[in-house]
Amino acid sequence: MDGMGLILVIVLGVLFVILATAKFNLHPFLSLLFGAFAIGILAGLPLADVVEAVNSGFGGLMGGIGLVIVFGTIIGVILEKSGAALRMAEVVLRMVGEKRPQLAMSAIGSIVSIPVFCDSGYVILSSLKKALAKRTGVTVASMAIALSTGLFATHTLVPPTPGPIAAAGNIGADDYLGTVILFGLIVAIPVIITGYIWAMKAGTKIEIEEGDEEDYDYDEIIKGFGEMPSTFKSFAPIVVPILLIGFSSIITFAGWSGGLFDFFLFLGSPVVALLVGVLFSFLLLPKFSQETLTDWVGVALKEAAPILLITGAGGAFGSVISSTNIADLIKGMAGSELFTGALFIFIPFIIAAALKSAQGSSTAAIVITSTLIAPLLPQLGIEGAVPLSLVVMSIGAGAMVVSHVNDSYFWVVKEFSGMSITQAYKAQTMATLLQGVVAILVTSILWLIFV
After folding, report:
1. CA 400, 405, 408, 409: dihedral to nearest 10 degrees?
2. Which controlled-vocabulary keywords does the entry list (predicted)?
3. Which contacts of 380-386 are long-range, i.e. CB under 8 A and separated by 24 or more positions?
4. Which of 63, 141, 353, 376 is found 20 to 30 A from 260 (Cα to Cα)?
5. Per-residue pLDDT tens digits for 143-163
6. Whether the predicted model's global pTM rises above the 0.85 cut
């Protein structure tokens, strides 16, 4: 099948994935696989080729980024359970100062969410947020928005968070992870600032009714956790892998080779760099026992499993689409200004935003969008570290728009802050809309400058 018939089949396949997950609550893993088989069969591919495309797409993506996702999740769980996340929060608070508590919460959230899922990060830091609000005399809502938006920014933009890593793997940018991290941090800064400004503007006007909650005291919360890890041990599992990946990217860009450079290229490969991060995270363990070495790692593997399955199914979905005649169609459209000009960077954003708003999961939106656009990129000549990194940023920006009632993170923020649904719409949903718009505007400016 080719022409408009093929386009219609692919569109129907995407609509099926959206409806199956959003309307009928089918797990994205199954909806993506069913959609992949349906597109392959309806597009007229030989049945054996459909099976081969699904298997190769699933296995190929897992071979590229599966271990990276697992290692990143292990680091996140150990940071959470060892108290390192709270130690990082305390350090950032001392640096920023208690006179700017909302800014401190934005910064804390953005750092913690690089390896830790934003839902978990919000739960971990929720009591700290309320205690700091009481201590500094600011509204809980403003602290809630500052924390949630700080967490959300890096969750969708900066590896080793699973979503951006999956996107990089899907579009062939896994060899440029250092560049993806660099641009993720560049784009995330104005996005974090946007969340902070909204926290100061809207959050200070939202009054949350106090329920029968426990009395939050900052010093008691810190003391109640017991002895926390040192600052170096707390930051090392995040900072060391990023530095290794970044240095490896510099070596590759400069064309250095031989001896020590080859060794650092080995250390800077994403799998090895994240494994080094795991080793540094072992320094955080209060003791080496079955609880820490088996149970904590087991929790991480359980958290990683759905992400791995969705990512693999997304790879299968994209592989089937790539096996159709879509490449020939793209070649025919390649002369369009929509595809060749600066407007192209908005296409991944729009697709990801539609998927995010429809089915709720930012990670699923990132995975599905990256698989959909992957076949377009080689045909349009979009390749190399910078262009592909900015495509990842565009997808991440779309995956912010918007967090509302079908998003688990929306309910985490609402429930742990005590806001009503109306207040949460004004605070969280509006904030994520503004963040997504700012992210795509910054990305489009970078696209104009560098591409």
Report:
1. 50
2. Membrane, Transmembrane, Transmembrane helix
3. 380/330, 380/334, 380/339, 380/340, 380/344, 382/344, 383/172, 384/176, 385/173, 385/176, 385/179, 385/249, 385/253, 386/179, 386/183, 386/450, 386/451
4. 63
5. 999 999 999 999 999 988 888
6. no
